[in-house]
Design goal:
Elements: E1 8-11, E2 31-34, E3 41-43, E4 48-58, E5 63-68, H1 71-77, E6 79-81, E7 86-88, E8 95-102, E9 108-110, E10 115-123
Antiparallel strand pairs: 1-4, 2-10, 3-9, 4-8, 5-7, 5-10, 6-8
Length: 152
């Protein structure tokens, strides 16, 4: 990976013994966030909980940290990041916590050090709104919610 961004990170006392996030393969776009909990958390079907990671960080200006569900947890257990993808702004300095939700039919147990979500560092831009009387035409136009069909 040639695009590197330096991110200052503090391991909080309850996460100090956990490894820092890292990329699992050279082609990985995301790092895993780990659960920095002292005791297991059981998510019943339909429940959600804020899970601490034991990390606080300084995302560089012009970037965001995106928090996403892990595909394996979603496919096998229907565990999602409730507000995913979530955005951690560059001016936030508190602990990174992940809202995990159980959309499955069985209880799911979160354990210490479990990989609970994916984190992606991404550039972001501020929009400058330009009031306009009309918008340029497109093939789609104002069609939405299924207007492009359901099959390829």
């Amino acid at each position: 990976m040639t695009n590197l961004v330096n991110v200052d990170v503090v391991q909080l006392p309850h996460g100090a013994d956990l490894p820092l996030p890292s990329y699992n393969t050279p082609g990985s776009a995301a790092m895993d966030a780990l659960a920095a909990i002292d005791q297991d958390i059981v998510l019943q079907p339909g429940d959600w909980q804020l899970i601490p990671t034991g990390l606080a960080m300084a995302i560089p200006e012009g970037f965001e940290l995106q928090i996403r569900a892990r595909s394996g947890l979603t496919a096998k257990h229907a565990i999602i990041v409730l507000n995913g993808p979530a955005t951690i702004d560059s001016d936030y300095r508190g602990e990174l916590k992940v809202i995990l939700a159980n959309q499955g039919k069985e209880a799911f147990t979160v354990t210490r050090g479990m990989r609970i979500a994916q984190m992606v560092i991404a550039p972001c831009y501020h929009a400058v709104w330009k009031p306009a009387a009309t918008l340029p035409d497109t093939e789609r136009g104002a069609g939405g919610f299924g207007s492009t069909g359901t099959h390829g």
